[in-house]
Amino acid sequence: MSVSVVYAILVTSLATFLSRFLGAVSSQGIKETSKIFKWFNCLAYATLAALIARTIIFPVGVLNEAGYLIRLIVVILSLGVFFVSKRNYVYPTIFSAVCMALMASYF
Amino acid sequence: MINKKIFFKGYKSILAHDSPAIALGCCFIAIGALLKNLGFNIQESIFSTMLTYALPGSLVMAESLLVGASLLNIFLAVWFVNARLYPMAVSLFPLMMHKNQPKWKYYFSCHFIAVSAWLIMKSNYKSIAKEHRIDYWIGIGSATWSVAVLGTLIGFCFSEFLNKEIMMGLAILNPIYFLCMMVGASKTIQITLSVLLGAILGPLFYFFSPEWSILLGGVAGGTAAYLIGEINVS
Question: Is the pTM above the cut of 0.90?
């Protein structure tokens, strides 16, 4: 293994584990019925939603090469499949990949 | 020690009809291919997923390496993008705390905190007795972690067969899966508002600070949703 890549992996792991570990330590003594738990629950859902929205609107990596309109169409159609399939998670997910690959090749 | 029956019950949860295994596996296939294209060897790719086990963090590391960023820059960029794991941990572990369980299980299993495992646990924890929830969680985490490692291996080995369009298809899988899971989880006013406000404020804050946008959007959106929910209840 090249040294710089190994260091990058270790640094990435440390930065990731830090948030997880601090979360596990500071959650000792928090009761699931407390207000602070409810607040953190809201923070977690909102942060995840922010991450997903950012991944779709301002993507990093290969998704950046697909236009805004293509990404928007794929999201809307996939949500449509989600509701039509009675809130099944797998159908819209597979549909989104096929739809994105097809739209990226033709447009 | 770990209750094997409960552990395997958790492990098998990824075989459910609406399991995240397919989406998660496909995304890590894309990561495996990306890491190979960046010049990682197979050991580095596997260790990266095993030790990090967080998609956005791996992507940020890959992008940072590509532009020649320093180790400190990589640390800060990954820390910012993965800071969401902190509120996720705080909103999950109190559901699993039990005096009969040793502390090491909680510290060890915090490595499994990731969106897919977290959402599965949040949907299923009520069906497991509180004393055994940590074992169930370790089962879920081990299963999703195995899928991620296997996906990376497959992606690395078959990267030459994945063209740009297929990579784009694989890259959109995870956000769409999580989006559907979040919409499905929006059953109370607080959660629904958290999801809506987070999705609006996150990209909005991106214009002011790309690094802090996820955290700021999450804190502002989550706090507003919590307060509105509390006012609504009272």
Answer: no
